[in-house]
From TrEMBL:
Assigned keywords, A-Z: Cytoplasm, DNA-binding, Phosphoprotein, Transcription, Transcription regulation, Two-component regulatory system
InterPro entries linked: CdaR_GGDEF, CheY-like_superfamily, Homeodomain-like_sf, HptR, HTH_AraC, HTH_AraC-typ_CS, Sig_transdc_resp-reg_receiver, Tscrpt_reg_AraC-type_HTH
Name recorded for this polypeptide: Stage 0 sporulation protein A homolog
GO molecular function terms listed in the Swiss-Prot or TrEMBL record: DNA-binding transcription factor activity; sequence-specific DNA binding
Lineage summary: Bacteria, Bacillati, Bacillota, Clostridia, Lachnospirales
Organism encoding this protein: Anaerocolumna sedimenticola
An example Gene Ontology CC term for this record: cytoplasm
4-aspartylphosphate PTM positions: D55
Major location category of this protein: cytoplasm
Pfam families linked to this entry: GGDEF_2, HTH_18, Response_reg
Entry-linked SUPFAM superfamilies: CheY-like (SSF52172), Homeodomain-like (SSF46689)
Amino acid sequence: MIRVLIADDEPHFRNYMERVIAWEELGFKICGICKNGEEALETTKETFPDIVLLDINMPGMDGISLARILKQMNPNLYIVFVTGYSEFEYARKAVQIGVDEYILKPFTKEELTNIMIKLKLKIQKQTASLFNQKADKEIVKEELLKQLIRGISPNRLEEFLEKLERVDIQLSGTNYLVSVIEIDNISNMWKQSDEIDLWKFGISNVTQEVLNLEGIRHLIFNGFEDRIVSILINNSDIDLHEFTKPYYESINLLIKEYFSFTISIGIGTVIKKADDIAESYRHAMAALEEKFLLGPDRVICYDDVARQNREANFYRLDLNESLLNCLRKHEKDELLSIIDEARQVIMDKNLTVDYAYMIISGMMSICLSYITEMNGNISEIYGSEFSPYSELYAKGSLDECFSLLKEIFLKAMDAFKVTYSKRGIEIVQQVQQYIENNYKDPELTVEKIAAGVFLDSSYIRRVISRQIGCTVSDLVTNIRMKEAIRLMEHQELSIGDIAEQIGYNEPGYFSKCFKKCYGITPKQYYNQRKS
């Protein structure tokens, strides 16, 4: 609503102006009705009108004097002189000193309406222009700040700082710190960019209010990929590192309290020069990436995670083979147990995010290759829009990735359950049990196994190949290799002793089989355990 103040010393004319048109229907609100110049001046100070309808000839302070004062107070204020015929020439002179319109008494409803609509359009145009100027300035600010966190070359720094000053950004300070806020699971919560922008605006406001309490200068703006960035600028003795985490934890709690989602916050390192702000930003982003392993809804400091040891450690390749066998044998519980074990390996060894993705991608490939092995159609199982690796990399945490992995494996297992006969599975279980009981026998052959389970050796070969996709000899080797790992984990035995205990007469042949299965020799495995 456009605010209107009426000032006239004649009561009947004040009443007439108040009632002659439907003010609110036209977009106006009367914020004051005054009987003299002094009262109009005080009311203007209190109510901040946009338009003043002002009688020229009032007792005390006349309309001309009041108009001059009001224009000094607010040059953007619109003043309409209301005057009688005898004062008409006087009113025309007043227009020359800044009064916007005049209207002769007595006037009709239409005459007043026309003047008010004319002024309304001017105000709207002026407001739009100011808004656009402000919006353009904010866009320039945001783009400059994005350049700042990307990094500015030293030879361009002085020129860049001048650009910042032109949009009222001052970076002078003794130290700085950058933080990055990310809405958790944002891609699944909202599809429309205007919805995301609305919530980002809310987060920025909460962040602004909390940081204002401490009185530290700060810049808050929209960063890349729908993140909110804040740069703290310190000129005092406050330790930014000690100060920052508690305040961002309170921001995190407020977001959960006020909104229907959670956020994660990465806090960078404290730096002393403005041209190193990009470094603090990179550290904040590195801290934020840790939510993949730690989970969402956290405040993560780079200084905390940077002290942790990162490993790209030995990953047991037999886990992948075990996954494939579980699919072939439809061992759901064992399958889920192996997937959970892989997740625990990533957590226990504090693996890098990239290495974690590599492991999960490899496990996913095992599942998809199994579908191909079974002549299945991936699109029929998962849908035509299924893009496994895109879905994987869209997940924001380790738990979400492993939930997706389990879903993919279980759908594959379910798709082929009718392929397996109960008898075939029973035969596989009988053969496996016989091998597990007799793997120490160096003379263990397919024929010996067949005799032990009272079946034909050719038939056993076909069933094993159809059910689990490998030969009987491969099955014997896999069981022996698992036992070798168990012995090496729990006993200090020589390679020769281990070979003998699992059915190999020649240690060299055992080492060859071990390397083929795990990618490293037994000696290398021992060395890795010691290190």
